[in-house]
């Protein structure tokens, strides 16, 4: 008696696995990029309001280091030539990517509305030392939204991206 071979995964399943791999790579650096973006916004706001950009630049530097650590932590996955693990849950992954984008737009709107309210209605909201922090608060969800939109693009273009990866890595 011979054991039955499991069915070979199809290209759609492998493309979905490749998309998952790529989304993990984005997620690994996204936190650091959010911190760096917030720091950069703080530095620019400080300069525009006549202050020192030092604190914002330090924060941007810390964010860049964190993003670099995330990049290094995923270097093996980033440069692998191994085939991706096949996945079957395309509908779940697509709906999750769409729901995440909608949720991030809502969060972005709420954070920006809160920052505008702080600026307009808090006693110190318009003072330069307090006002420089608001763009920093506003930048974090904006950068996060950019990352989530990029992930959604990866999920939507997974077949094209996987085909390009195959063309580069097949002997």
- Along the chain, the helix and strand elements come as HHHHHHH
Helix content range: over 70%
- Give a count of the beta strands, DSSP E runs of length 2 or more: 0
The shape, in one word, is elongated
What is the CA–CA distance across the termini?
Answer: 35 Å
- In angstroms, what is the radius of gyration? 21 Å
Biggest sheet record: none
Strand content: under 5%
Roughly what is the average pLDDT, rounded to an integer? 89
Structural class: mainly alpha
Description:
The protein is 78% helix and 0% strand. It is built from 7 helices and no strands. The longest helix is centred in the first third of the chain and has 38 residues.
Main traits of this protein?
single chain; 171 residues; mainly alpha; 7 helices
Give a summary of the structure in a few sentences:
The protein is mainly α. Helix content is 78%, strand content 0%. Helix 1 packs across helix 7 (158-169) and helix 4 runs antiparallel to helix 6.
């Amino acid at each position: 008696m011979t054991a039955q071979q499991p069915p070979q995964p199809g290209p759609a399943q492998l493309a979905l696995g490749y998309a998952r791999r790529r989304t993990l790579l984005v997620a690994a650096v996204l936190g650091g990029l959010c911190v760096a973006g917030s720091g950069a916004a703080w530095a620019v706001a400080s300069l525009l309001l006549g202050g020192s950009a030092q604190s914002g630049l330090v924060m941007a530097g810390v964010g860049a280091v964190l993003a670099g650590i995330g990049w290094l932590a995923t270097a093996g996955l980033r440069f692998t030539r191994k085939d991706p693990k096949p996945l079957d849950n395309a509908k779940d992954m697509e709906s999750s990517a769409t729901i995440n984008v909608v949720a991030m737009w809502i969060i972005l709107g709420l954070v920006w509305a809160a920052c505008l309210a702080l600026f307009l209605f808090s006693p110190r909201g318009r003072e330069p030392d307090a006002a420089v922090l608001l763009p920093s608060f506003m930048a974090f969800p904006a950068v996060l939204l950019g990352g989530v939109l990029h992930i959604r693009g990866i999920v939507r273009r997974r077949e094209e991206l996987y085909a390009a990866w195959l063309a580069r890595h097949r002997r």
